[in-house]
């Protein structure tokens, strides 16, 4: 499968539309998870995305094999499994912390705190891993981050001391912790994709990584809930009608992220993926009926502008 698609006169890197699709599915899934918070505990709310997503992922992989006419299986080793486990465990921790942040302050702001992940990924990618990222893309990531932080701070911050106090709130600590966990997850899953031989199409490899990771997540978190939160586990099973859409959207979104990680640097995928905050803004206002301040419109503009800069750096690289 080529990593470039032609849209009119534009040669568009494949990771860009895949990332945008992943952002849409993630925002949709997160909004449904936010609605579950009154019915399930944070641990159970995170569990349903893996438990109910796994069957669909297997169907997606079988469909991809049938459609592409592929017979080869991705070549993997124990290091691949270890990286999938590490990435999946970090994602469980990040998801649980993010859902706890929802309990502290609303859907939009709870999502916003976790978006410092993009800045963490840029710094780690460049200074620790030696990745080469276009200057325009770096600028776009930080412009979008400014918009994301604006959504969380507008109307609440008037003095520099207010910023310091805001960072000490439980929601801020949970969001920042979730961002660090998601960063670790992204790097681990990117490394897992590099362990595969490349003998199968990227769509197959993305789904294969997703299934292995989610199977390990389901066993890990499911086992923990059997031991410590058995009532929550049965409640997640009983509420399957509410939980199933979360799993379906999680499967679609995670496939997009994992495939994006296999195609390019994780900092670029997550940087462009910040567009989901603009979507969260709309969901929070029109679906969850949260009150939106006028200044948040400016913040959303910065997020969209940043996403466009990230894309432009690779659509028009010169």
From TrEMBL:
This is EamA domain-containing protein. SUPFAM superfamilies: Multidrug resistance efflux transporter EmrE (SSF103481). The keyword Cell division does not apply. It comes from Acidithiobacillus ferrivorans SS3. The lineage of its organism: Bacteria, Pseudomonadati, Pseudomonadota, Acidithiobacillia, Acidithiobacillales. It comes from the Bacteria. InterPro entries: EmrE-like (IPR037185). The chain crosses the membrane at residues 7-28, 48-68, 80-102, 122-151, 171-190, 202-227, 239-261, 267-288, 297-316. Keywords: Membrane, Transmembrane, Transmembrane helix. The keyword Transmembrane applies.
């Amino acid at each position: 499968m080529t990593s470039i698609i032609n849209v009119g006169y534009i040669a568009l890197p494949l990771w860009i539309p895949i990332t945008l699709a992943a952002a849409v599915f993630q925002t949709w899934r997160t909004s449904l998870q936010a609605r579950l918070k009154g019915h399930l505990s944070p641990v159970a709310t995170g569990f349903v995305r893996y438990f109910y997503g796994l069957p669909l992922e297997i169907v997606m992989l079988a469909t991809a094999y049938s459609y592409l006419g592929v017979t080869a299986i991705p070549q993997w080793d124990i290091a691949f499994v270890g990286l999938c486990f590490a990435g999946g465990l970090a994602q469980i921790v990040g998801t649980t912390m993010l859902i706890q942040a929802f309990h502290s302050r609303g859907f939009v702001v709870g999502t916003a705190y976790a978006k410092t992940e993009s800045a963490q990924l840029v710094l780690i990618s460049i200074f620790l891993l030696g990745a080469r990222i276009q200057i325009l893309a770096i600028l776009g990531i930080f412009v979008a981050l400014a918009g994301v932080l604006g959504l969380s701070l507008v109307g609440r911050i008037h003095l520099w001391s207010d910023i310091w106090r805001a960072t000490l709130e439980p929601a801020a600590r949970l969001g920042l912790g979730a961002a660090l966990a998601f960063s670790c997850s992204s790097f681990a899953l990117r490394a897992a994709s590099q362990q595969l031989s490349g003998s199968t199409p990227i769509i197959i490899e993305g789904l294969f990584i997703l299934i292995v990771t989610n199977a390990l997540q389901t066993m890990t978190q499911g086992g923990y809930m059997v031991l410590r939160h058995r009532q929550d586990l049965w409640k997640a099973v009983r509420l399957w009608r509410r939980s199933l859409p979360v799993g379906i959207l999680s499967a679609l979104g995670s496939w997009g992220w994992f495939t994006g990680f296999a195609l390019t640097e994780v900092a670029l995928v997550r940087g462009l993926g910040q567009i989901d905050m603009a979507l969260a803004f709309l969901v929070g206002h029109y679906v969850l009926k949260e009150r939106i301040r006028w200044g948040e419109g400016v913040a959303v503009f910065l997020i969209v502008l940043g996403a466009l800069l990230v894309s432009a750096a690779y659509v028009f690289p010169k």
